[in-house]
Design goal:
The chain has one domain. Helices cover about 80% and strands about 0% of the residues. The chain has five helices and no strands.
């Protein structure tokens, strides 16, 4: 039962996090060409998205639980570890590229000279993060599919 609950939480939290990540990726083609004023206006829709951080905590803990509880199943363990690696990669991209752009623009409320470069950094880092989140989801699905019947 605990194993099932861990899988459920891992899959649900990863799906929700992937949804947010894909939202950024899917809007990139429409936002990347906006002029400065329009871009800064549109960026204000993200105020408060940092509240989704709890979701990442749930995601990490649930995937770690799947790895621990599935230790006896090599495929589950391997796929779940790959999912965790995807999540860690997505977070590395965020902290190395996305967050510095947020800081430089004070969460897109200050328009620095290099705003266009920061926009590219922000947009493409979100695209990469979405790719890593999607990889994490795919690996969790493979882990679930590779479970032995109880």
């Amino acid at each position: 039962m605990l194993y099932d609950a861990a899988f459920f939480l891992a899959l649900l939290s990863t799906a929700l996090a992937m949804g947010a990540a894909l939202a950024h990726a899917l809007e990139l083609p429409h936002k990347i060409g906006l002029d400065r004023e329009a871009y800064f206006t549109v960026q204000q829709i993200y105020a408060g998205w940092n509240r989704l951080a709890f979701l990442l905590i749930v995601e990490v803990l649930a995937i770690a639980a799947v790895i621990g509880l599935g230790w006896h199943e090599p495929y589950v363990r391997g796929f779940a570890a790959a999912a965790l690696a995807g999540l860690i990669a997505a977070q590395a991209v965020f902290w190395l590229y996305t967050q510095p752009a947020n800081v430089a623009t004070q969460n897109w409320t200050v328009m620095p000279e290099a705003w266009a470069a920061l926009r590219r950094q922000w947009e493409y880092s979100h695209l990469a993060g979405a790719g890593f989140q999607t990889l994490a989801m795919a690996m969790l699905i493979l882990a679930a599919l590779s479970r032995k019947a109880a």
